[in-house]
């Protein structure tokens, strides 16, 4: 079993990177082999996992643009079982640089094939745009996980994302699934957050994860220490919520594999 999950929402600041790092860490703690692909030029997953961005660092840019072997760019993190394909600001230029390349939506997918059997889960941290990088992530993925912040305009842009997913299914015949909608930065003290959460559950139904990620300051602090929340503050609500999410992802995965074995 190996699963590639793109963590995407073209809105910035909704918890994509926080989810990539901490779901990745929580899956690794439950003995899965995990690769996080940083596909955002901001490189927040890279620094958040404690990898220094020095000029000699091999990154996803070298793989996508210069055809560097992906296993020469993947590095280990301080956490057992958790690897990273890093990114830095060079990646900004990639949309333009690849515009005339054949099969440009499938470059990441073709590289990833070489290392896929080493991992149980690959999580792709997408940039806040429906650009060529996000298309590459979606084409490389089996499913998408969409973090949505429980606030006003939560649904802004989500219909474009759903249209893009539909287009990928139709134009490329790629059976992309919805892994789940994840409610993030939930503050149960406010009526607004509760109302938005209820609306999202009504709109997306069973596609919404049961696990909700609370607003928790420890989650915001952890990246500046280059650590996942599981390493930074294992007893925090933030840490518990991502462990819970990992369990839910694993349970859904098992349910799907029994289903497909039985059919
Ligand atoms: N559950 C949370 N509680 C508190 N702060 C959070 C939480 N999730 C994310 N943050 C903070 O909110 C900001 C945006 O989150 P981030 O994961 O970087 O979003 P994105 O990758 O979608 O832009 C970051 O400063 C992050 O530390
Ligand atoms: Mg991010």
Descriptive overview:
The chain is of the alpha/beta class. The protein has one domain (3-262): Rossmann fold (3-Layer(aba) Sandwich). It has eleven helices and seven strands. The protein has helices at 16-29, 44-48, 60-66, 94-97, 107-112, 132-140, 158-172, 191-204, 217-221, 229-232, 237-262; strands at residues 3-7, 34-38, 75-76, 82-85, 121-125, 143-149, 177-184. It has a seven-stranded mixed sheet with strand order 3-4-2-5-1-6-7, with helices on both faces. Helix 1 (16-29) packs across helix 11 (237-262).
Topology:
Layout: E1 3-7, H1 16-29, E2 34-38, H2 44-48, H3 60-66, E3 75-76, E4 82-85, H4 94-97, H5 107-112, E5 121-125, H6 132-140, E6 143-149, H7 158-172, E7 177-184, H8 191-204, H9 217-221, H10 229-232, H11 237-262
Parallel strand pairs: 1-5, 1-6, 2-4, 2-5, 6-7
Antiparallel strand pairs: 3-4
Helix pairs in contact: 1-11
The CATH superfamily bears the name P-loop containing nucleotide triphosphate hydrolases
Would you tell me the structural class of the helices and strands? alpha/beta
- The number of domains: 1
Spatial strand order of the main sheet: 3-4-2-5-1-6-7
The mean pLDDT is 95
Order of helices and strands: EHEHHEEHHEHEHEHHHH
CATH topology: Rossmann fold
Largest sheet: 7 strands, mixed
Strand content: 5-15%
Oligomer: single chain
Distinct ligand kinds: adenosine-5'-diphosphate, magnesium ion
Under the CATH scheme, the architecture is 3-Layer(aba) Sandwich
Which runs of at least 5 residues are low in confidence (pLDDT < 50)? none
Please give a handful of descriptors for the protein shown.
263 residues, alpha/beta, Rossmann fold, 7-stranded mixed β-sheet, globular, binds adenosine-5'-diphosphate, binds magnesium ion
